[in-house]
Protein: Cardiolipin synthase (CMP-forming)
Organism: Balearica regulorum gibbericeps
Amino acid sequence: YENPWTIPNILSMARMGLAPVLGYLIVEENFNVALGVFVLAGITDLLDGFIARNWANQKSALGSALDPLADKILISVLYVSLTCANLIPVSLTSMIILRDVALIAAVFYVRYKTLSPPRTLSRYFNPCYATAQLKPTFISKMNTAVQLILVAASLAAPVFNYVDSIYLQTLWCITAFTTVTSAYSYYHYGRKTVQVINNK
């Protein structure tokens, strides 16, 4: 049983809140403001990780799931909206969304399996009951970084006029490769990425 209201968790929730704002700005083709809001979201990501690593009382099992979940929600919204704006291909976005949906489903399954009886809805969705800590694989962290680099590059493309750049298209291929490799790493090392806290 832990306090869910830590600074890193609040920052992760703020990042989730920024996702629809970014999506709206991109669809409306307000790329200058969208780029600024994206930088703000990136700062919250850096801060929550830094605080969780350096202050033990700010680290939580909930945060180990909330931080990557916030990243996945933000990335999914960004890729869908950038695809709507014709800045990222549909095939790449579909690949990323499918991977993230599978990972989120796996998180819900792990939560159910590690929650001690009685498994009621109120206990299942109560963030104070910590049951498992998630440890992303190295390639998954690299994939998230590559995906965010592509988002930043794609957002900046219409602002700095390099939408048809070969470097941007190369980045699409690199992102596709790391996405597939990351999905396989979770499949292969699945059990090693979950540390059960309480399985009584």
Observations:
- The helical segments are 7-27, 31-54, 61-84, 90-114, 121-124, 138-160, 166-188.
- The radius of gyration is 18 Å.
